[in-house]
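Throughout our pipeline, every protein is held as a single compact record rather than as scattered files. The record that follows is passed on verbatim for readers who wish to inspect the format:
___
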Amino acid sequence: IWWVFLIGSALVMSFGIMKKDLFDARWMILPMFFLAISLFFMLLSSQINLLPQKANEVFLSQGSSMQIAFQAIREKPIFGSGPGTFAYNFSKFKNPDFNKSNLWNVVFNRAVSKVVNDLATTGILGLLALIAIMVTPVIFGIKFLINKKSSKEGKDSETNWTLILAVTVAIVAQSVTYFLYNSNTVLDFLYFFLIASLVVLITEEKTKYELKSSSLTTLVITFIFTLVFIFGLGLMILDGQRYIAEINFFKGLSLLQTGQNDAGMKKLEVAASQNPSSDLYFRQLSQVYLLKLQDELAKNTSNPSDAQKSRIQTLVANAVNAGKIATDINSKSSNNWAVRGYVYQSLYSVGQQDADSWATNAYDEAIKLDPYNPYLLTQEGNIKFVASTKATGSDSKNKLLNQAKDKLESAVNLNPTYYNALYTLGLVYDGLGNQDQAIKEFNILQQLSPSNEVAKILQNLKAGRSAIETVTPPTETPPSDNGTTIKNPPAEKTK
């Protein structure tokens, strides 16, 4: 921000000095003041205690953003991956070393700046169009400012020149910002509004149209106005419906966070019915159905009534259908496939036949879109490990354990401090009879997060006993690309 202030203030001062006969020197104090302020904060990085503290923002570096953008345009160079798809590019092309940071489960849906973001999502043509939009008005504005001679037209001419200077500098400042930072709807609207204002100010010849009641021009313009009005009104109604759906969605999330699961589920169902094209709503709804299913299973006795059985079957069907709808709406989102796999995986743990293969297939689709995500590899490893505990023959058990080992070792290579992957990997080594390697994994866990449970496991392993008698690997909900993950209660582990 201070760099933008500095550049804008310097430009105003430069043109003011260059055109002293058109720019009142008394106003030079304003750009001087802002230039000094920007230098002060740039050099000293001060924070005034009376003002709100600077918000901490987490975003990709320029180097990481450019690396992802170049990978994206190498795949689709002309038109890019499509507007609003940087999150998919990030998941697919991020550096594997990113998983070793504390933000490994964060999905960035934008690059560090608008220029780099547009390069990845709109391709070479989109970037050239953006640069043309930035450069063209600046060239015309500067050309007008330089060529404008001292005029005898009076105060109006000086005022017009000063307005053009202000608008041109504002366009330059925002163009610079596009290289340093990202944008939003408000800033983009302001940018095009400034360009339109500059066009009006520098255009000397203006054409006027007189609409007569019987002219063909009047008929055509009336027809166009009617079309614009009807389509505009229709779009407003549709956007209004989406806006109401968004309100219901966030109300539902708020209710879920306070433990009001039934009320929250109903709000999410209303949101999904109002905007059935949103994969996010169905993705979250599938997790809520699963959460409600877990509550029902915890409440039910060994002999549930027919009504309870019906509710359980309905929740199972709803969870599966909502997850499938999310992937049908948007099959390019690894999160949609991850949640779908998580739903199947959870159903497998409660005895749903073939749910393990369904979950593996869903996770495979997610890995194609997000190949360096240790969470996905860990879940596939968990599925194979749980399947090995149910296998009857030693050959099939060892085969499943080795498959689990390969997946979990890949996850740990991506993120050496990933607790859940290390935990299950230690159990897999124990199942394969490699106690030394199992002890090594649980020693790492004890260093990362000391606990009585891990200490007991290490004691069993060192004594030549099995790590634990029966176990459910630690479970976790899939990472979200928008920070709205539904948290499930932790799974109980029997020691």
